[in-house]
Write a structure and sequence with these properties.
Distance between the termini: 17 Å
Shape: globular
Order of helices and strands: EEEEEHHHEE
Number of helices: 3
Number of domains: 1
Structural class: alpha+beta
Helix content: 10-25%
Number of strands: 7
Strand content: 25-35%
Largest sheet: 5 strands, antiparallel
């Protein structure tokens, strides 16, 4: 699954990405305790992933790229439980202290511009 950047909205206030087929949204949104990486079905509140990244801004692009790398292996038509299964926190709530190193150990994702060209990693 690949994603392209689109305009932010109330669910993804800092960064909003839409999957190529328009089924999934992924993005970043600031909250009182830091930045959250969230994912869900397009046009609905994000319920598939809600990962608190804290306030370390150097971490945000690294986590985003690692998440995109894992999502790259999935088909657009996958189910929410299939999305959850590709992450180290499968079946539990993501926790920065517990899951960060396992998440970052795997490859790099890629962003694709609306015209189809690769964008540099954030």
């Amino acid at each position: 699954m690949t994603f392209q950047r689109i305009a932010p909205n109330r669910n993804f206030r800092a960064l909003r990405l839409l999957s190529g087929g328009g089924r999934w949204e992924l993005g970043l949104s600031p909250y009182s305790h830091g930045m959250r990486l969230r994912m869900g079905l397009a046009g609905r509140p994000p319920q598939v992933m809600d990962f608190c990244l804290g306030r370390n801004t150097e971490l945000f692009p690294k986590v985003l790229v690692a998440v995109l790398a894992r999502l790259d292996s999935l088909d657009e038509t996958c189910r929410p439980d299939q999305v959850d299964a590709v992450f180290p926190w499968a079946g539990t709530r993501p926790d920065l202290e517990i899951h960060l190193s396992a998440l970052l150990d795997r490859g790099h994702g890629r962003l694709v511009h609306a015209e189809g060209r690769d964008l540099p990693a954030p």
